[in-house]
Structure formats: structure tokens, C-alpha cells
């Protein structure tokens, strides 16, 4: 299991469009991946799960993965969040 924490920097947080990009990136990996906010953990490959967390800009979240490519998965998702979901990192 591999875990890293990141602050969501873009103003809208993980809503609709950014959440979709996050899920698309998560689905590139075989590992099971979760995103956690304040003790609530959801499947990072589920749009409804991510939206249910209500993640806004400035929120700290943990990205957790378990599987063969867990470190690569977490690192790629952290990079995407750090980029503010910019074009070149999707």
C-alpha cells in the first residue's frame, strides 16, 4: 500500500470536470485506488464517490493505492492534482 497527501489547489476543487480527469487517470492503473478526505474513503475510479466527498480548493486529501503499480498510480494522480488539472498533465 502506498499513500501520499496533497492539497487540491484549483479553485473549483474536484468537481465534475476535474473529477472526470482524475478518474480517467486512475483507470490507467491496475491497482485499487482510493481518495480520502477527513476519515471518508471512496473509490478513486468512481465519479459519484469522488463527488460525494465535496472536495473544494484548499482541501487536503490522501491518495491511496494498493497493487502492482501503486507508487506510479499515486505519483501520477498527485502530479495531476498539483498541476491544477492543466492540459499537459492529462
TrEMBL record:
Coiled coil location: none
Compartments, as annotated in UniProt: Cytoplasm
An annotated GO cellular component: cytoplasm
Top-level taxonomic group: Bacteria
CDD domains for the chain: PTS-HPr_like
Xref: InterPro entries: HPr (IPR050399), HPr-like (IPR000032), HPr-like_sf (IPR035895), PTS_HPr_His_P_site (IPR001020), PTS_HPr_Ser_P_site (IPR002114)
GO biological processes: phosphoenolpyruvate-dependent sugar phosphotransferase system
Residue ranges of every copy of the HPr domain listed in the record: 1-88
Keywords, in A-Z order: Cytoplasm, Phosphotransferase system, Sugar transport, Transport
Function: General (non sugar-specific) component of the phosphoenolpyruvate-dependent sugar phosphotransferase system (sugar PTS). This major carbohydrate active-transport system catalyzes the phosphorylation of incoming sugar substrates concomitantly with their translocation across the cell membrane. The phosphoryl group from phosphoenolpyruvate (PEP) is transferred to the phosphoryl carrier protein HPr by enzyme I. Phospho-HPr then transfers it to the PTS EIIA domain.
Name of the protein described by the UniProt record: Phosphocarrier protein HPr
Organism, as annotated: Ruminococcus flavefaciens 007c
Amino acid at each position: 500500500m502506498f499513500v501520499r497527501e496533497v492539497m487540491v489547489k484549483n479553485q473549483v476543487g474536484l468537481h465534475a470536470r476535474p473529477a472526470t480527469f482524475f478518474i480517467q487517470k486512475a483507470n490507467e492503473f491496475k491497482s485499487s485506488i482510493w481518495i480520502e478526505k477527513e476519515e471518508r474513503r471512496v473509490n478513486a475510479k468512481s465519479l459519484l464517490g469522488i463527488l460525494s466527498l465535496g472536495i473544494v480548493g484548499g482541501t487536503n486529501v490522501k491518495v491511496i493505492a494498493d497493487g502492482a503499480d501503486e507508487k506510479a498510480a499515486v505519483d501520477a494522480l498527485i502530479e495531476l492534482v498539483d498541476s491544477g488539472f492543466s492540459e499537459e498533465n492529462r
